[in-house]
Each structure stands twice: as C-alpha cells, then as structure tokens.
Design a protein that fits this description.
single chain, alpha+beta, flat, DUF397
C-alpha cells in the first residue's frame, strides 16, 4: 500500500519534538498516524470514527 503522508500544520520546525504525520489508508480502513521523525517506525491505524474521536478529544483538552 502506497500511503501519502502529510505533516501536521501544527508541527513546528526542526527542533519540534512533537511532529506527527497523517496518511489516508485503503478505503474503509481509516487513517494512519506516525511520528514524522521516525517514518520507518510504523504507524497507528485509526478507524474513521476513532480518528474523529481523537480529534474531538484533542480540541477539547487544554494545552499545558
């Protein structure tokens, strides 16, 4: 499967230690989430519903 990864617009520059990338997986499979600093380290697979839940949680969690 050839996944086209897209880096988060919230990821910072070279010194940012919290960079993520998203990739659309095969139809019906969901979304892949991986560490952009370790692209060969595998990815987390989320269903579309799971990804929506993750986004909602992130949006409603205050930043430290």
């Amino acid at each position: 499967m050839n996944i086209q990864w897209r880096k988060s617009s919230h990821s910072g520059g070279i010194d940012d230690k919290q960079c993520v990338e998203l990739g659309r997986l095969a139809p019906g499979v969901g979304v892949g989430v991986r560490d952009s600093k370790d692209p060969d380290g595998g990815h987390l697979t989320l269903t579309p519903a799971g990804f929506a839940t993750l986004l909602a949680s992130i949006k409603h969690t205050p930043s430290p």
